[in-house]
tetrahydrofolate synthase (Candidatus Lactobacillus pullistercoris), 423 residues
Amino acid sequence: MKFTDDKQVIDYLYSLPHFHKKSDLSYIKRVLHQLGDPQDQVKTIHVTGTNGKGSTSYYLSNLLMKAGQKTGLFVSPYIREFNERIQINNKNIPNQDLTALANEVLGAITTLQRQEPDFNLVTFEFEVALAFLYFAEQNCDYAVIEVGIGAKHDKTNVITPEVSIITTIGLDHEQIIGPTIQDIAREKSGIIKANRPVVVGTIPDEVREIIKNAAQAKNAPLLKLNRDFKVESDKKISYEFENKKLIFKSRPLVESYDIVIAVTAFYQLNLALDDQAVEEAINATQIPGRYQTISNQPAIILDGAHNIQAMTNLLQVVHAKARKQNGQVYALITMMKDKDLDQVFSLFDKDDQVLLTTLNYPRVAKKNDFPLDVQKRYNYEEDYRRGFTKLKKKLKINDILLVTGSFYLVSAVLNWKGDRDAS
């Protein structure tokens, strides 16, 4: 078998299983070794966290580029096209490179199958192999690597990064890396490597010792938000670390945490970049699908918040904005049916106008997957485009339309409407 175009590659990736019978790193390690261990040929920064890891990765990538470094970026999910998952210097991997690299990975798998006929990779492992191979072959100086889920058992955890990052710890993917928040913290602490600094953001009190002990056991310097570096967010974002004081443009509070985590991690690399350039790099960063505004007056905001922690943070910002301008909040939402739906929907105010919708994906909730009281409280529109149009027609100039609950929904609306909603 040989791939001839990117569509064949993507179709093949989605035909692969999602999990192995055993959750270890042996499969990905064997393929990478067969490919010459490309993951060891580029300096890396490894990023995990329940929320904020994607945003932090984008901020860090921009800082590295500003410092003149050829920078790889591996993130998920994608918003516009699959190629977003693997970038160099903010440019998506070209289709021809994706196809050529997929054939290289497939060749390595075929070689291993001669000794072990049942050997294969799951979807995410194949994607990880593509990324490391691309970054090595393109001679990147650094690559920012966002985990898929967790850290210790995540298929990206085959590197010794220059810096590790844990943005937040909260409840999500409990059935895979839980069920308790302590289990999740232990899993995420697997990103910590011997003698390499780890930068930590918002961590609940009940799991701080787990992270602290993991860092001490690895002799890894631990830099904590609100202890080693500080942030204040009002009209602008103020950042303090050691002798540095920087000011960034205002963003939602949780984004300010992601910014200062990224900047603190960047400073661990000892790359030359003056304060003004750091501020410019951060202020210029645009993150797809995270508090992305496609219209003002009335505001239309798209955000892929899909768990309790992320939705709490998002709705605090949106409700504060609505109160300030005396506007009504409308929300178009769907979620994966395995999420904590009851708790997420309890976060909406009673005056919020919420419309449930769905998408043509197996995991996405359909009408009967929503809790009964949610079904009674809110209307349901199967076609998200019709739902979006219905809500948009109701908007007055100070109102807010929020599209949220899933990056899949954000992706669908952006691919339909574009970055600026002109219609």
About this structure: The first strand starts at residue 43 and ends at 48. Residues 84 and 92 are 5 Å apart (CA to CA). The two ends are 45 Å apart (CA to CA).
